[in-house]
Amino acid sequence: MLSEFELIARYFSRPPAPDSRTALGVGDDCALMTPAPGMQLAISSDMLVSGRHFLPDADPHLLGHKCLAVNLSDLAAMGAHPIAFTLALALPEADAQWLAPFSQGMLALADAHGCELIGGDTTKGPLTISITIFGEVPPQQALRRDAARVGDDIWVSGTLGEARLALAGYRQEFPINAEELEQAAPRMHAPTPRVALGLALRGIAHAAIDVSDGLAGDLGHILARSRVGATLDVDALPAGPVLQQRDLHLRRRFTLAGGDDYELCFTAPVRQRDAVYKAAQAAGTAVTRIGSIEAEPGLRLLDAAGEPWQETPDSFDHFRT
């Protein structure tokens, strides 16, 4: 059985990259980091708990990817460039057959984004993964939740709903065949953080948030912080290819409130439509215009015919869901 320090040394200690901002990384009481001159630090933390945020038998390589991806998604929503992260890991046991693929999945995504593991903690306990991530953004360029303006277009990246469709398949909520589940499952297990899009939207978008708990609820955070309202076209929401084959009501429910999408929802002035499409093209990510910001508080849902859709979708809540 590995000791705590053998575990860290074997799976999570690596030499610093040549362009590292870290003066001192894994192995001391604190890491020492040197931000780039004139930049602000963007800092976010996320905790993933077995049985709550992922299935207890989740593939460890994919889980390693996902636990960092959800943190990178927070930086993307702020238009921040990733630089480093810490990992706090509670494990039922120090199992080398689990730790090896977990660390490989996590560190492969870290390397893809130039984001260095600089410290953390390990202990014995129920499987829990907590990451704090650090990014950089120029002053006045962060994409904040409180910056939406009346008249802004509302946009979303990628597609929505298929992570929730996969979860429904695992829970056997309704029939999903094996092929459909196999196609939808990557959206649940290995989300793609839209870091490049977030960076490309600096100076173009006003407000942004990553869609983690469901589009309607997450957009609601922008509306509340910006003190505005919005109208959404529920039939304009981009469903993933497997979800597109399902009935209209299910598509609306899962694209509006499915959760675990890790796409970006953002607002931008109408005059910036061409700039938004160019930024999306440069980032290699599709975007869809789905509604508009209005002065009247609240979220109004219309169908493709312009008729109100009365159902109120419930987004994920850690203490109520």
Task: Describe the model.
It is a single chain. The protein is α+β, with helices and mostly antiparallel strands and 321 residues long. It contains nine helices and twelve strands. The protein has helices spanning 4-11, 60-78, 96-112, 162-171, 178-189, 195-200, 215-226, 248-257, 273-283; strands at residues 22-24, 32-33, 40-49, 81-91, 116-124, 128-137, 153-157, 207-211, 229-233, 263-268, 287-294, 298-302. It has a six-stranded mixed sheet with strand order 8-10-7-11-9-12, sandwiched between helices. A four-stranded mixed sheet has the order 3-6-4-5, with helices on one face. The chain has a two-stranded antiparallel sheet with strand order 1-2. Helix 3 links the parallel strand 4 and strand 5. Helix 2 packs parallel to helix 3 and helix 4 packs across helix 5 (178-189). The longest helix is centred in the first third of the chain and has 19 residues, at 60-78. The two termini are 37 Å apart. The relative contact order is 0.16. The model has no long low-confidence stretch (mean pLDDT 90).
Key terms for this structure?
321 residues, 9 helices, six-stranded mixed beta sheet, four-stranded mixed beta sheet, globular, 33% helix, alpha+beta
Q: Which range does the strand content fall in?
A: 15-25%
Mean pLDDT across all amino acids: 90
What gross morphology would you assign?
globular
Structural class, by secondary structure, is alpha+beta
Rounded to an integer in angstroms, the radius of gyration calculated over CA atoms is: 20 Å
**Which percent bin holds the helix content?**
25-40%
Strand order of the largest sheet: 8-10-7-11-9-12
Q: Got a strand count?
A: 12
Q: How many DSSP helices? A: 9
Unreliable sequence segments: none
Q: Sheet with the most strands?
A: 6 strands, mixed
The run of helices and strands is HEEEHEHEEEHHHEHEHEHEE
From the N-terminal CA to the C-terminal CA, the straight-line distance is 37 Å
